Amino acid sequence: MTTANPAALAASRELVIDGRPLRVFDGHLPNVGEYVRGLSRAAFTRTEVARPETAEYKHWATEIKLDALAQQPIFDITRRAVLGFTTPSFGYRPYRAYTNVASFGDMLFTHTDCLPDQHDLTALWYLCEHWDLEWGGETMFFDAQDEVACAVQPRPGRLVIFDGAIKHVGRPPNRICYAPRYTFAIKFEKIAVAGA
Q1: Residue among 19, 7, 156 nearest 79 (CA)
Q2: Residue 16 reports pLDDT greater than 90
Q3: Region 65-88: what's the mean pLDDT?
Q4: What are 192's strand-pairing partners?
Q5: In the CATH hierarchy, which fold is given to the domain comprising 14-191?
C-alpha cells in the first residue's frame, strides 16, 4: 500500500466497498494479552444498541474515556493507521471509544456507524490471544445491494479501519468457542484542516 503520509502504517489488506475504503492491519500490537487480561476484569453493561429499531436487543459494552484513551499505546498505533486516510484538507479526531464483548447465543444486528455523507471512520481492534477459524466471530461488510462484500475474521491484535457508512455486523462466536469476542472500537469524525 502507498500512503500519502510516510508516518502512516501500511495495511496488510485493502478493499473499496461502493467507493468507501476498508483496510486491515496486522502485527502492530505486540502486547495484546495485556489488553485481553484487562478486559476480563472490566465492567461491561448491556447498553449498546445497533440501530433504533433493535433497541430492545442490547449487547454488552464498556466505555473508555477519551483522555484515558490518549494515554494508551493502542491509540498511537490507531492514530498512525488513520493517517493513511487523511489528506492535506481534512483529518480525523476521535469522539468515542468502547469495547464490545459477544459470546455464543448473543444477537448482533447489521448497522452503519455514520450517515453516508459524513465519511467518519471506525477503527475496530480484535483483542484476543488466540482465535480459531472454526470459532466464527467474523465482521461481515455489505455492499449497497446487501450482498457480503467481505468478511474480516478475528485475529490477535488485528485492526480494521473502515468508512462508517459501510453496513456491517459482528457475528457472535460459534457454539464451540468459549472465549469472549472482544472488539475495541474507536470512532473518528472527519474534520477540516485549519488553513487548508
Answers
A1: 7
A2: yes
A3: 94
A4: 90
A5: Jelly Rolls (2.60.120)
